[in-house]
Amino acid sequence: MAPGSAAVNNFSEERALLGQCPVLRVFIRVTGSSVWEVCSRGLPAGHPSQVSVDVIHGSPPSPPRRLQSSPAAALSAVKCSACVMNGAELSELPDESEQLRPFVSRLRQAAEEAGGGPAGPPLSDGFLLKFLRARDFDVELSLKLLLNYLRWRRDSPEISSCLSPSSVLGLLHMSYHAVLPQRDHAGSRVLIYRIGQWNTKDWSPYQVFRVSLMTSEIISMETETQRRGLKAIFDLQGWSLGHALQINPSLAKKISCVLSDSFPLKVRGIHLVNEPRFFRPVFAMIRPFLPEKIKQRIHMHGADFHSDLRHFFHPHVLPPEYGGHGPGIDEACQDWTNQLLHFEHILSQIAAHPTGDICSCPDEPLIRKDVHSE
């Protein structure tokens, strides 16, 4: 069929035309980011042919929208049709996979058209893949997440401009925060925050929040964490009125928005333990700013949490203080503090960079004894 001719909807008529003018036609139906129907009508092997590709978005238009393509592009589409992949399956592919390139290119182009970042070199593939994996390769949602990330970095310099672990070393040495050395059964990173270790006279809420951002920046560079996300345990033992007075509505909105819809990480679960009654007004202030999906993943366990946590985490993942038999919480906190200090230079580069895209993606696991739970 010659380029520019009308599409033929009747299959028998098309077969007749194929006999006169060899054409390989490839039909690709896509919805969102997932290819859900692919078929081809082709020719005997070795037969010279023209190639056309029909791309149908959602319900098929009449006639289908036709894109003329090279034989190589069509064969690539046919090859792709051999494994129809959804977002989760695409996420499993290595960064170098040819099947990921169209998504990366589309997101980069969309970001440039939206004017999301400052002028400079194009955003790197590795940087964009973080946002694509965080939204299961839905380009529209990934773009929204990317623009939100760039926006909060620009609008909140009091948080984003200093990501130095040394600047909060006193807080870290109080065993405030740890990323546990073992992942959970689903491969998620497990983070613990011990709010009672935060002395409000020594550390502002912005300094405390920066600890979360430092950790998030580091673990978001791990491909496995991009795929599996994270789960966080907030230990509220020692929560006091002084802590509550530090959290005003403006800060609550900023923190919840950054962590829920402005950072390229999947939050798989939030677990609150030892929460006192007077924590509930603060949580009520934060809750309206959280997406519905995050709200459904929040679990309040109270003071008798040890047996409850075992329903969500294997005991060998958790420290003994939380009902497990992994490394103790003090050891885990010190180990993670050492990890953050090791990456101080990278964190400083991220803070100083206009977009945070420093093209630095470690090949090795970031945490010693990085083991999956069985």
What spatial order of strands do you see in the largest sheet?
5-6-7-8-9
Q: What's the story with the biggest beta sheet?
A: 5 strands, mixed
CATH architectural type of the largest domain? 3-Layer(aba) Sandwich
Q: Low-confidence segments, ≥5 residues, pLDDT <50?
A: 1-75, 77-82, 360-364
Number of strands: 9
Domain CRAL-TRIO: 164-330
InterPro entries: CRAL-TRIO_dom (IPR001251), CRAL-TRIO_dom_sf (IPR036865), CRAL/TRIO_N_dom (IPR011074), CRAL/TRIO_N_dom_sf (IPR036273)
GO cellular component, one term: cytoplasm
Pfam family, one: CRAL_TRIO_N
Describe the structure.
This protein has three domains: 11-81, no CATH class; 87-155, N-terminal domain of phosphatidylinositol transfer protein sec14p (Helicase, Ruva Protein, domain 3); 163-352, CRAL-TRIO lipid binding domain (Phosphatidylinositol Transfer Protein Sec14p, 3-Layer(aba) Sandwich). The radius of gyration is 25 Å and the shape is globular. β3 (50-57) and β4 form a beta hairpin. The longest helix is centred in the middle third of the chain and has 17 residues, at 139-155. It has 17 helices and nine strands. It has a five-stranded mixed β-sheet. The chain has 374 residues and is α/β, with parallel strands linked by helices.
Topology:
Layout: H1 11-20, E1 23-31, E2 34-41, E3 50-57, E4 66-68, H2 71-81, H3 87-92, H4 101-114, H5 125-134, H6 139-155, H7 157-160, H8 169-172, E5 177-179, E6 189-194, H9 205-219, H10 223-228, E7 230-235, H11 241-246, H12 249-261, E8 267-273, H13 280-286, H14 292-295, E9 298-302, H15 306-309, H16 329-342, H17 344-352
Parallel strand pairs: 1-3, 6-7, 7-8, 8-9
Antiparallel strand pairs: 1-2, 3-4, 5-6
Helix pairs in contact: 4-5, 4-6, 5-6
